[in-house]
Amino acid sequence: MRRVKQLIFLGLLSLLIISGCSQRKNPLQMNIGNGGLFENTFEFSSLENILNDPVGRTLLVYLPPGYQEGIASNYKYPILFLLHGFKENGRSYEQFYNIKTIADQMTSTGEIQPMIIVLPDGSGRFGGSFFTNSVTPDGKNFGGRYEDYITKELFDHVLYNYGSTIRGIKYKVTQRDSTLYKDSIIVDTTCKIDTLEVPDCPPESIQYDTTIYKIPRDTTWKDTTATISDDTAYFRQNFGISGHGNGGYGALRIATDYPLMFGSVSAMSAPLSSDSIFLRPLIEAFFVSNRVAKCSDGYRQINIDPDSLDRLSSFFFAMAVTFSPHDPASTDYRSFFKLAPPNKGVDLPFDSCGNIVTSIWQEWLKNDIKTRVLNILNVYPDTLRNLKIYIDCGDKDEFGFNEQAVVFYNALLGKVPASNITFETYSGYPGYPALNNSFIYDRLRKVLKFHSDCFTAP
Questions:
Q1: Under CATH, which number does the domain 36-273+368-454 receive?
Q2: What whole-number distance in Å separates Cα of residue 363 and Cα of residue 356?
Q3: 3-state secondary structure 219-234
Q4: How confident is the model at residue 185 (pLDDT cuts 50, 70, 90)?
Q5: Whole-prediction pTM value?
């Protein structure tokens, strides 16, 4: 009898436990929707170069949970271009920092609105392109036109193939530099696409993607024209650009070069001020890391094989490819390094004694983000009035980018509305300092939230 009572008691207890569990929500469980991360390889003519870097690049595009249903309902997805850091490529944000997992979770919990995230490859021979056009002084391609690659070829491709705020229009910018802001318009020829309907565009313009658009190749096409002006805030506010390191530099440069295209920009641990006060310690470190005595022949004998260079030296040579390809008409070879026949190469901004070469340094300063932005604002004070800016950096950045970020932020105060710029420094913890490549997983959450708050779609 006692045995029977024990069994009845245990049975009732089990029912209570099951009932209790079924009635309460387990805080450890979340219904996380699955977005998609799609990878393709394309050739981009903008990336033709003399260094034998590939023109074929892998492109990853993240589509949020419910994307296909959203497209069917004409949902207007905002787009974020996310540029990778130094010594990385388009796959790095997923391979090292789990961007899909972060975006899926934040979208599903309502922390961010659904968005398309574009992850291009901007790697170069020495580890980075700074997503900037690399041309010789006579205007010829050197390392590749990476800014054109993003703003022209890639921008067109993304708008044609993925649902967006203004879907299916092919864009180009008639004036590249935002110093020509008052004359700049985004204008073009071609397409109007609504949900899955056949677009009105000439066949040479459309990118066929049968997983998204069911477009018969014998369609009768007609030309249309769309003009996007500064008054079309909805367009601008729903395109953002971000990046880490050399990608953060590229993001800020592109956003300020094209103020009509992007409404928000963020830069994580990026080089934002190249004042000589920051350059000199890095020059000293360059000689030390290469074990070269100043004013010796060792400088000319540095092995510039990318696999042999340390991170700092690679950074210098990558910047030289971007900012100071050697002028074919110049006979000054004090800081010249040959990269391709017959006599094509780059100039570093310092010679074998560590002295700054003024002519080359001036070329680097022209590409300095702080200098560029201040020059733009001095000519057209309202140029960036609609651009939201977020910058951050770890307090132990080994390249001194944290100090550069402070200088950049302070230079912009009073030049742009205070509410338009956010600056954060962050710390590590014992044994794990906040270096240039640290805590990117955590910073990505901040960046996605920042851009989501700036977007106005749907």
A1: 3.40.50.1820
A2: 12
A3: CCCCCCCEEECCCCHH
A4: very low
A5: 0.81
